[in-house]
Design goal:
Layout lengths: L1 H14 L27 E5 L13 E6 L7 E6 L6 E6 L5 E4 L11 E11 L9 H5 L4 E5 L5 E13 L2 E8 L18 E4 L5 E3 L10 E7 L10 E5 L12 E8 L2 E7 L23 E7 L2 E8 L3 E4 L1 H8 L7 E8 L3 E2 L3 E4 L1
Antiparallel strand pairs: 1-2, 2-11, 3-4, 3-12, 5-6, 5-10, 6-9, 7-8, 7-10, 8-9, 12-13, 14-15, 15-18, 16-17, 16-19, 19-20, 19-21
Length: about 350
């Protein structure tokens, strides 16, 4: 028995070769990182904007989206019903968007507002200051949505980081690209803010799509439209790229009892040249409506095919009982497709 046990131990000793357990040299392998976990739905904003870029179809709408972590893309579908959705846009980059932290009061039009300052907290991305030449060349353009759902387009000179992802903007140009009507009311804190850069995606639309309350369904582009991360909201684009801009430089002269009113039109297409004596019309034909008001009561509408109109003494007597020393008016340029453009109010 002792001999047998000794033989077994000798065989076991010979069968265990320490070199078997030596490390074998193999190429190193880099571990594959796990993709970030996506939780929830992206934040998305539909933007009904005037014509802000040459060559863009004026019927187009725009959309911006952000999600942290970014899912690679955000898919946007639309349908006139609650089924049969069609892909309308694929947002390929996260937008720099967030909310305002301060109220933005009414401000001046056509010049830099040095008084107003507004803090903006963004979900991702950075904001930067610009010199005045760069800003006037189109840099630092953003949109802020007021309580009526209208986007005011602003530009800013200064962006100062004051907290985490929070910037104070100042040196503002207000009501850009024909959005000056949005300056007339204070925008409360908590308003949506979107930088208008390449991350904002065009939504191709036809004229027949405008003003129709489509259902829009959106979510991470790497998931199916039926996924729980997708959200559905109704929205109707108005095609503001077709809207004529408001006239400017309203003047009035009295000739006897008649009141002769004149103005300068603007254009939404091809108006950047300083060399032309007059900007292009931008519409199929030239036409205007001039509304006459007594307080908030509309008294008369005058029409014209030139940037001038006469409110006669006889019309004033018919409307007010006597010629007026001052009259409140609104002037609209008209479009064959869109109808009345943005109004210009004046007291003449």
């Amino acid at each position: 028995t002792d001999v047998a046990e000794h033989g077994v131990r000798e065989i076991e000793a010979r069968s265990i070769d320490p070199e078997v357990y030596d490390r074998v040299a193999v190429p190193g392998r880099t571990p594959t990182p796990r993709p970030p976990i996506q939780i929830g739905s992206p934040s998305l904003a539909f933007l009904d904007l005037p014509l802000i870029a040459a060559g863009t179809s004026p019927e187009s709408g725009f959309v911006a989206a952000v999600q942290v972590p970014w899912p690679g893309s955000v898919a946007v579908y639309s349908s006139p019903q609650t089924s049969g959705y069609q892909l309308k846009a694929l947002v390929s980059a996260p937008a720099t968007m967030g909310v305002t932290l301060d109220a933005l009061p009414p401000g001046p039009e056509g010049r830099i507002d040095w008084n107003a300052k507004v803090r903006v907290k963004v979900a991702q991305g950075t904001l930067a200051s610009a010199d005045i030449v760069t800003m006037l060349g189109g840099a630092n353009t953003a949109a802020i949505r007021n309580v009526s759902g209208v986007w005011e387009i602003i530009q800013y000179l200064n962006a100062v980081l004051v907290d985490v992802q929070t910037y104070q903007l100042s040196g503002l140009l207000r009501g850009q690209f024909g959005s000056e009507a949005a300056i007339q009311e204070t925008v409360a804190a908590g308003a949506s803010f979107v930088m208008l850069n390449n991350a904002v995606t065009r939504v191709p639309l036809e004229f027949a799509d405008l003003n129709l309350p489509y259902n829009w369904r959106y979510g991470p582009g790497n998931r199916n439209i039926g996924d729980a991360s997708y959200q559905t909201i109704p929205y109707a684009f108005k095609g503001l790229g077709l809207r004529p801009l408001s006239p400017v430089r309203v003047k009035a002269l009295r000739n006897g009892g008649d009141l002769s009113v004149s103005w300068l039109r603007r254009t939404r297409i091809g108006g950047d040249s300083w060399d032309a004596s007059e900007v292009p019309l931008g519409e199929d034909s030239e036409a205007y409506d001039v509304e006459i008001y007594s307080g908030t009561v509309l008294k008369r509408t005058l029409s014209s095919v030139v940037p001038a109109v006469t409110y006669t003494a006889a019309q004033q007597v018919a409307d007010f009982g006597a010629p007026q020393s001052a009259v409140a008016i609104k002037i609209y340029q008209k479009s064959a497709l869109f109808g009345r453009g943005a109004p210009r109010a004046a007291l003449v």
